[in-house]
Amino acid sequence: MTAIENTPPGPLKREGRLRCVLVSSRLDLRHYLGAEISNIADQVELIDQDEDGDPDARLAMAWHPADDAFSRYPNLQAVCSIGAGVDNIVGCSSLKPDTDVVRVVDPGQARMMSGFVAWHVIGHQRGFARYRAQQRDRVWLPRPQRRADSVLVGILGHGEIGRKVVADLTYLGFSVTCWSRTPKATSSTARSYYGPAGLAVMLNKTEVLVNVLPLTPETRGILDAQVFAKMQRGGYLVQIGRGEHLVEADLLAALENGQLAGAALDVFATEPLPATHPFWEHPKITITPHDASDVSVRAVATTLVTTAEAIRAGRRPPHAIDRTHGY
Ligand code: NDP
Ligand code: OXD
Asked: Where exactly are the structural domains of the chain?
């Protein structure tokens, strides 16, 4: 029995509730929402996807929907993601072009992402891999120290998460540049580049490249041999966007020939990463299991509620993505 069924209906508050279909091929979304269900029960009635569908459903919450998942819900006005990324939803062929897709914006998640990036950037700057090896061999050998401002970190993506990464790395004293699709004002501390031409210029000086782009047709495969070749030799990759951004063979070659000194990978084209994948045992690769940061379930529940309110009021939901650009 779910919390929503346990809660006695408050007729006045509940009469305008929107039905929200839970659509996922990977997760039990009702279980995922857990205790938050009682906080949203006045606004939305959760229903499970089924064979019959529901022509009246106007709202859905989705994560990795099956390709035909939306065909049984022809009147959806909005589909909410349970993450910042929406690529697994916009890529679904049964999603109508005019359905709003809503992402989660969670400042707490951006902070966690930024901490994750700082961990790896500092790890590269201070040579933590060498100290780990020294400890294993019981070697006491202080190393020359590099100042943060001697490390140029380029951030791909200057959105909700990229902005926080830029601000925090700047605060830590790193030299920071960032790249986006559209022009941004260059601040006194972080130089901003945009578009393909801007990327080439930015990479020229980049030692650590952090990818926090959304996955779109334009960004798929962006982390390739050409990009690595433009970076400073002995550079480092922090990959927290989506696995499909990376051309895996090009990364392995860049690590092999020394163009890159190492890579921290959090996201992969196939997740979970297959046990036989060469990344697992690579001495220059650090792997985390798509764990850089999760959104809070509270932020997901709030997104559902604000989206339901917007649908009822005939407005576009806050944080609806631009379907033309796919993010
Ligand atoms: P936003 O949509 O807020 O920002 C996206 C940024 O990428 C914007 O600056 C945008 O440019 C830029 N961008 C998009 N397309 C291009 C392009 N073709 N060329 C150059 N720049 C481009 O996204 P978030 O910052 O919230 O999140 C980014 C991604 O991070 C998510 O989509 C997800 O894939 C990933 N992520 C991974 C997590 C993990 O645990 N590993 C957790 C959370 C998110 P502009 O500003 O001009 O629009
Ligand atoms: C997200 C993610 O998109 O967890 O939020 O990857």
From this structure: 18-105+295-313, 107-287
